[in-house]
Amino acid sequence: MSGRNIxxxxxxxGIGERVAGRLVExxxxxxxxxxxxxxxxIASLSEVNGVSHTFALSLARDVRARAEGCAxxxxxxxxxxxxxxxRLLELIKTFAHTSHARDKLDLFYPFPAxxxxxxxxxxxxxAEYLELADTFSADTEFLNLLSRVKKLxxxxxxxxxxxxxxxSGDRKTLDAARERFQEFLxxxxxxxxxxxxxxxxxxxxxxxxxxxxxxxxxxEGIEPELFQDPLKAEFWQILPEVELAFFAKNLDCxxxxxxIASALRAGGFGFFEELSGVELENLKTALLKVGEDGKPIxxxxxxxxxxxxxxxxxxxxxxxTLNEANQRMNRxxxxxxxxxxxxxxxxxxxxxxxxxxxxxxxxxxxYTGEIEAVKEELSEKLNFQKQEKLMLxxxxxxxxxxxxxxxxxxxxxxxxxxxxxxxxxRLSRKRELAKILSTFHQRVERLVREVxxxxxxxxxxxxxxxxxxxMPAIISEAGIGFEAGENLFLKARYGEIxxxxxxxxxxxxxxxxxxxxxxxxxxxxxxxxxxxxxxxxQCVVLGHMGxxxxxxxxxxxxxxxxxxxxxxxxxxxxxxxETTLKQFSVxxxxxxxxxLADELESITEPGASARIIAGILEYLARxxxxxxxxxxxxxxxxxxxxxxxxxxxxxxxxxxxSSLELIVNRNPVYNRVARSxxxxxxxxxxxxxxxxxxxxxxxxxxxxKN
Length: 706
Ligand SMILES: Nc1ncnc2c1ncn2[C@@H]1O[C@H](COP(=O)(O)OP(=O)(O)OP(=O)(O)O)[C@@H](O)[C@H]1O
What we know:
Layout: H1 17-27, H2 30-39, H3 42-46, H4 53-68, H5 72-75, H6 79-93, H7 99-105, H8 116-136, H9 140-147, E1 164-168, H10 171-181, E2 186-189, H11 193-200, E3 205-208, E4 225-226, H12 235-238, H13 240-249, H14 251-266, H15 277-287, H16 302-335, H17 342-350, H18 355-381, H19 386-393, H20 408-466, E5 473-474, E6 479-485, H21 488-494, E7 500-505, E8 518-523, H22 529-545, E9 551-556, E10 561-565, H23 574-584, E11 593-598, H24 606-622, E12 627-631, H25 635-640, E13 647-656, E14 662-669, H26 677-688, H27 691-702
Parallel strand pairs: 1-2, 1-3, 3-4, 5-9, 8-12, 8-13, 10-11, 11-12
Antiparallel strand pairs: 6-7, 6-9, 13-14
Helix pairs in contact: 1-2, 2-4, 6-22, 7-20, 8-20, 13-20, 14-15, 14-20, 16-18, 16-20, 26-27
This protein binds adenosine-5'-triphosphate.
Binding site for ATP: 523-530
Pfam families: MutS_V
Function: Has ATPase and non-specific DNA-binding activities.
């Protein structure tokens, strides 16, 4: 489908300068806005300030109508026809699991028979899903998955990576880097090495695209990462956070889509072949590592865990280890005494040795031993690796001190070193994950779109499954006939209702010789005439939408225009009467019209009504392609006013049940004027009484004979 005929927003009815401007701003360009309207993206359209849901829908329908060359009003010719269609649509929408499907259903409307191409296209689309619903429409787990699927949300606009910077002294590099990355991190120009160092100091991760400053002696703690070319660098390398944020933001929806794909495949239905079974599992595994905050979740990476724990425990472990060592040293010192050898005594006396040195030598042994023990304990408890162990050496001075204490500057360095290692590991984990996910990104976008579109067809199929609908057979001559039809509105309300069979026009279901295209439907009060007329309307509207219909079997001839007139409440005033008559004037044109009218006689006084209805029926009967069903209590009077052969069918009461209620056979009897309710009531009284009273009722009953 293309949006032919439309080149600008302003061509659309209801779009003025201001709304057009807002649409362009919201979607980025006029084309994108038109595309959203064409695709019927009601949800996005209604996000635009000044565009209500109803307006968005009318825009979408308008554009759709132009694209298909066929509008909703081409087929649905009266307000009541449109109302009935809307009620059907509301019912179908209750089966949608996503707002995407709910919105898109609004764009499905019936087409006239002359656009059989569109009807067939839709029938093919719907038919694909019917079998699916047999397997999945009652699978609550599957349905829950579907209701978790939404349009993908973009990466939050406020995402900023604050601990990373791109630095360069080269204009071209800067321009390219800004173009690609500036939205999410800082890209800064520097003039010289000292500026470079000053800037770099404030970030735990510095990215450069040339080695200008790498040959200098970089201070401790600054380790820039070199990438070759800002245009060619992989996005996931420079900014893995963006990829991760996209997946994190849509995690639930994407996982649901993957599980839907798996479930469909397990059920024997091919779905989204772009992802193989193995890839599907790989993606699921990767997604399970993404936290909701967009960071890789904890507990999956031993190196990260090791560094995090080491940093967290550094201070408490240090304090407790030193405490214990100090106590040990204390005890050792208290228990110690100094015994001098003869040699030492001589040296001391002769001045060849100071008493202080002698004591220091002794103490040094104890001190060094304790420091070694402390380092060992620290590196064991903090699970240190080689490099970190080496850093412990400079943590304690060689000079004896008691109590034992650490060099604060060195401790700070160790902490920094651990922090840097942690940040590095974190970044490389993010990159690993982002790299895997980036290979799936576009396919995931397509997958979600496909699942959303799937729900559109699937909702229709669920609706069909719930009401046991069937695809109608399209026939070539004017006629509608069905077996075991069930009015959807009644069925939705009551659950169980009586199936009805009926046929007008040339269908294989009309009785031999009774293939009239124009019929009057008579019947007892509350017999089900209105319901039957509504059922006919439902079948015609759904059938022309390319949808299945509420009947076990249905033959549907071509209808070009559908006129539906509901029962009016009481006599119309002159103006309303005139308007109604005008609507019928279209019958003067020939083409396949279907007119369903309910008790049209109430629009004016009975005598005039009968004449008018007779006239309308005559006009309808003239066209070989038109059909009409008129519910009326005046069938006999109407027949008296016409020479045209018009069939009258009747919905009759079969008798009375135990509580004296009428038992109605909802199936019209062909070619029979139904007895009216008053007649049945007289008959009931006649049967229930005796003697003089019964004679009275017998007299009344005679009055009903011609
Ligand atoms: N096929 C059916 N199965 C079960 N109940 C039905 C069926 N058709 C109609 N009914 C019941 O009968 C009620 C009256 O039906 P409906 O209004 O169609 O009768 P009607 O013949 O048009 O009546 P009236 O002559 O008063 O206009 C419905 O509300 C419904 O409860």
